[in-house]
Amino acid sequence: MKVTAEPWVGRALPRFEDEALLRGEGRFMDDIEPVPHARHAAIMRSPFAHARIESIDATAALELPGVLGILTGDEVMAMSRPFTAGVESGVPYYAAASGTARYAGEPVAVVVAESRYLAEDAAELVVVDYEPLDVEQLPIHERFFSYGAVDAAFEAADVVVRGRYDVPRWTGAPVECLGVIADWRGDALTAWANFQGPFTLHSVAAAALGLPGSKLRLITPPDSGGSFGIKSSVFVYVVLMGLASRKLGVPVRWTEDRLEHLAASAHATGRSTELEAAFAADGELLGLRYAVEEDVGAYVRAPEPATLYRMHGSLSGAYRVRNVAAHNRVLLTNRCPSGLNRGFGGPQLYFAIERTMDRAAKQLGVDPAELRRRNLVREFPYTTPSGGIYDSGDFEACLDDALELVRYDDRRAEQVAGEQIGIGIACVVEPSVSNMGYITLALTPGARAAGLPKSGNAEGCIITIGPLGGVSVRLSTTPQGQGHRTVAAQIVADRLGVDPAEIEVSGEMDTSTNAWSVASGAYSSRFSGVGAGAVAAAADKLAAKIAAIREHAGEEISLRRVAGMCHWNPESLPEGMEAGLSAVAFFSAPHLEPPDADDRVSSSASHGFIVDVAVVNVDRDTGAVRVLDYVTVHDAGRLLNPLIVDGQIKGGFAHGAAAALFERIIYDADGTLLTGTFIDYLCPTAPDLPPLTIAHRETPSSAMPLGAKGLGEGNTMSAPVAIANAVADALGTDGVELPVTPPRVWELLQQ
Amino acid sequence: MIEVRVNGRLRRGEAEPRLLLSDFLRHELGLTGTHVGCEHGVCGACTVELDGLAVRSCLTLAVQADGCEIRTVEGLEWGRLQEAFRRHHALQCGFCTPGILMAATDLLARGPVTREQVVDLLGGHLCRCTGYEPIVSAILEAAG
Amino acid sequence: MKPPPFLYERPDTLEEAASLLAEHGDDAKVLAGGQSLVPMLNFRLVRPTVLVDINRIAELGEREDGRVGATVRQRDFTGNRLVDLAMPYVGHYVTRNRGTVGGSLAHADASAELPLCLVVLGGEVSTSKGRRVAAEELFISHYTTALAADELLVDATWPEGDTVGFEEVALRHGDFALSMCACSLRVESGEIRSARVGVGAVVERPLLLELELEGAPATAETAREAGERAAALVEPPGHLHASSAYLKHLTSVVVTRALEQAL
Q1: What is the mean pLDDT of chain A?
Q2: In B, which residues are within 8 Å of A172 by CB distance?
Q3: Of the candidates C250, C196, C261, C167, which has an alpha carbon nearest to the alpha carbon of residue C223?
Q4: Cα–Cα dist A361/C248, whole Å
């Protein structure tokens, strides 16, 4: 076996994905025509946040030449079952509204025609009679958690810091919108969609359609134009278009437009957190008490209410505090259902904790960096009060690095000297690879015990070596730009001794041929842990087989010869060895037990650490915030490809900074969406984003085979609060709200 | 029926008056390298070159291009710009990339550029993956 | 998000265009660069029966010094000092490639830069009906001009300003302004002799402000006081992203800064 002097893993290798994309040869959802003559759907959506649908009259629409038919919400209800979710809300959720529409933008009918233009014309001719209703808030879930001796901690406290920390809805807004092609034939549905997992939602969709999983064949196109979590919600449209195809007897194609996307794909939850923090006079954090209200929108759409529980193992943040309580409530509102969105639960949690640390530092008269240092977790592995396992790290060293990089002491001195700047810090533990069982925390231990336990997070991979020695890798991690194909090639190259450029890696999911599990997909920053783990496991299987064949041959024969033996001459293989040269392997992350009877859960398999420091100044005339310097220090374990790593960090930071400075989904009191276009929903562009300085430590993960932790979401968690802290510091005020836009900062200055 | 010269080839296709140039290129001519991200002129993913200038194809009717010269990402020569994008990891999902390449090609054709001009150019394009800085670096490197 | 059906006409001459507009009146829309009209079509917010595409009328694309034809692209309109200051704020590089000078004027968005500049410079437009309309008379309110439905803007005349200033604050680069100010001053021996100061975005149409600057010293203090007076003269309604109080205050900031540039 050829051993390369320097492993491919760890190199900043430019990506194999890039050339096709740069030539315009990508194959995105709206580019592919996997079935001939798919017809075009337009979706009619409720203009009201809450309304009874009295009648739908499609007579005129159906007379328009080129219109094939319509599928109404009532028919959707008759042809399918409600989607299941982690908690029972009592408000059944179908792919389209039947009887009552519960958010502005909710599908009420689908019109199918020869072109999208015609389908939109026809949709305008359908007369829907709505009876508007008042908007409402329905509390549908409540749980109390307590770890350690929380009341005693508060009784012993010298200082208690209380506050309310609201995080508004925002959304990842990938530049490519959602898309589906659905082809119902006989008793089965084949659907192409730019889905990203988790494939738990494949089961949810199949159940809604009343199909066994094998009869819902879900295929993703070769390329996906970003997702950041949002495209997980396309499963709803797989069902909707599947039903339209079934009813009308033609393949149906639907490409979401931007108005539909902003109104009805998915938003991050809006969360209001009341947090009380008990401190000793010396700054020791003694206890935390959360009261959380989570707005998940009109329906509990799977995997919600997961946003609330994803970070459950990290309720204590980066700190050694042992006494933590949480009172969680979930509300249904007449808004777009929430869903996966980069950072998933992290921005909401850390906005409360890290604002609290800054406010506490002020009250205690301690420097905010110093207060954090006194409380950071020091020994690893560390088990948090709520059950999280921080596998490895050196938190204090990261803090030191960040403070040095940003010249913290100098900056503070400048501030004392009268420089109009503010400095904000955020210390963030970044989870990766979610425990598939954490969502069962939404159930009481008793209810949980009555069901089947869930745990782990498994991923699969298939590697096939063809008769000529060519290596093909099939991933089930549904990449949308994260470079999985390149990193997989690096991993396989090291293990099989081939050049990564010669390895073909496919990121296309086909549920009928890939090796996948319910956990498959691209979410919870899981690729570098379990995605890479599955690739390594499959490659190791093959490497072992190749080694055995070489040993049997008695010489170091080429891979091509080994492959030739396996394909052309299986008689020459060692006795009992199976023919062919292909391996399927699964890897499931360790230490992901089901939640225990005391509601402790290891909610993620691996935890990186980030320290961010933002330095801002505020234009007191206009309220404009300028980020002068932003330093982020990461410890994400071993870096598999530093070029891609830094790309993920820059992207995660862009989303976090956007949430800090620009982006917010706004509804008015009647539930009308006010940020329904890219004119009002303010995605930042190049001139709007601050510069970023990145540094790394590499403390290998003890949980993952390659020692790598996820890192794509951390700065989306940290940047909103780091920048908010800096603005609060600059203004000398407590009440900063996200996003800190110039008008809002100016209003703060007037107080 | 309209006739356009696209990437050097004379092409004909059906275009009712309301058909957007973006849809004409993608669905009539099969040039799917031009992407559609917002259809209201903000994201820039659909940018193509029309008679030598980068324009939004979602804000142009196909009939307006009748008799014109069009260049799309498929018609760009592979060169310094693309190499620089790869080296700087200036694309992740790659969906916004064709539009940015077309705009950058327009800018670079006008002579030497400053960082400020590149950043200003990118003010008209949304990229949700990269945070833009690698794109700025790549275009500046290609500018020499 | 696809446009509704419409008929399409592409006249080659001004006369043909004028007669098409006369024939269709309110049911017709003039298509120039399309950077504002086509999004509205895609949103189905406007539903013309006929689009009259004026891009191939040769004379509309001509420019002669300060006289700029309606379909001259924004990118090609350089050389006027005030416009040169304002143009980087007009949309984006790529939309300026296609967007036209006349289209921006005729569209009359109250937060657009070019209408404000034309008003401050004391320019005028000429129309297909042979009328000459002063900029101050042209803009009536948001999206409304003094042009008749069957009247085409043919060109605009852009005088050079004296010493000019332009300042705008928007939420993002290239967005419509929250507030903006353009000014043109004549300063002699440290004293302001004449001043044209206009604001946009916080008013229904680009508005010249009477700030009584003539005779004032050309100092930062004058600029600051003028900003305060300007703010008192506008009553902007609040909107999604900014309160009325903020927009009013911001107007004092942009006026002060624009004047400081010019001084």
Answers
A1: 97
A2: 128
A3: C261
A4: 37
